[in-house]
Amino acid sequence: MLSNYKHEIVRVAIVLNTSWNIYNFRMNFVKSLLAQGHEVHTVAPQDEYTSKLTEAGCIHHPIYMDSRGANIIKDLALIVELSTVYSNIKPDVILHFTIKPNVYGTLAAAILRIPVINNVCGLGTVFLKGGLVSLTAKLLYKISFRFAKKVFFQNPNDLQLFLDKKLVPADRTDLLPGSGIDLKAFKPQPFKRHRTFTFLMISRLILDKGIVEYIEAIRILKAKGIKARFQLLGAKDPEHKRGVPLSTVDEWIEEGVIEYLGKTDDVRSYIHKADCVVLPSYREGSPRSLMEAACLSKPIIATDVPGCNQVVTHRLNGLLCKAQDAEDLAVTMFAMMGMSDAALQHMGECGRHKMEQEFSDSRVVEPYLQAMHAIAASQVTMKFSY
Q: Which CATH number fits domain 2-180+361-384: 2.40.110.10, 3.30.420.40, 3.40.50.2000, 3.30.160.270?
């Protein structure tokens, strides 16, 4: 039980590709560690969210990390940089999230013999398509994950894929419900169907999230005279190799296809004003936007792909459609619009219940603490065995 370790202070390093990512997706976990008295070091490139981490009580270590592509020189330099940072921190355990920390951070930690816990947050489509890049990625995972004490996956499909490809030892794996959802922070409001039915997609503007399919589905519906509001909320990312060009986004706005809402640090007010949240992604780890929508009792439309179909149970808390199929997405959106108020409200309530039962952030914190304390205990045993 965790209570056996409540007086044991662990020095933990949490490593991600951006400070924004830590603050927006891991902060409840970080606060849980700090509340127990653990010493938390965050390692990520510096951005406008870094100060929020230090204000919360973290000790931050800025690094340079190019998360948008592979470059052997930069990646080797990242291993060296992380090795230096880890040597200075001297953590009891390192927690890696996102691809480059998982791979290169683990190799850096292995050189220093520091135990690590990794989290596979999701697999990019490049990983699954084959070719040299995919083969290289799999090889790097296979080499680095040999040194991990524990590897958490966010959906069973990704876990099974890694086991089938023999990229990770089976006895070191476990499943988590994504990054977890704060049930208290995301409280639903009384059901209200808006006069003009409103669809909302929340995502970074990259192609693999199904942005183009969403736009094409909207065009199909508008061509048939369907009256609805179609909104898009999320940061533009034109520098990403799969990012939507700024000129294309401007064309969509000028054409009147979508209402572009920009980006935000708090999605709740936008979700409250929507009738349905849409995510036609090609593949996910465990999509945060869908969990937040379900937690706020909103019906969901998502593609029937790993990650999305873990959060959405078809006809229970939402509807699933085919991936990369704008026609099927349009049909599904039209079907959602045609549902009665009672059906929409029931879907939303089922979504909230599903989040309470399966995706609460406590279900994420607990396995991590257990793994951390098990590692800390084994390290103490090793010291006394000499």
A: 3.40.50.2000
Q: Whole-prediction pTM value?
A: 0.89
Provide the pairing of β-strand 39-44 with 11-15.
parallel
Taking CB atoms within 8 Å and a gap of at least 24, the contacts of 166-169 are 166/142, 167/138, 167/141, 167/142, 168/141, 168/142, 169/145
Q: What is the DSSP string of 159-199?
A: HHHHHHTT-S-GGGEEE--TT-B-TTTS-PPPP---SS-EE
pLDDT mean values, one per 10 residues, the chain (386 residues):
56 95 91 94 96 97 80 88 97 94 97 96 72 86 96 93 94 89 94 97 95 98 97 91 92 95 94 98 92 98 95 97 98 98 98 95 88 79 46
At 150 the pLDDT is 97
| One CATH from 3.40.50.2000, 3.30.420.40, 3.40.630.10, 3.40.109.10 for 198-359 | 3.40.50.2000
First-residue to last-residue Cα distance in the chain = 27
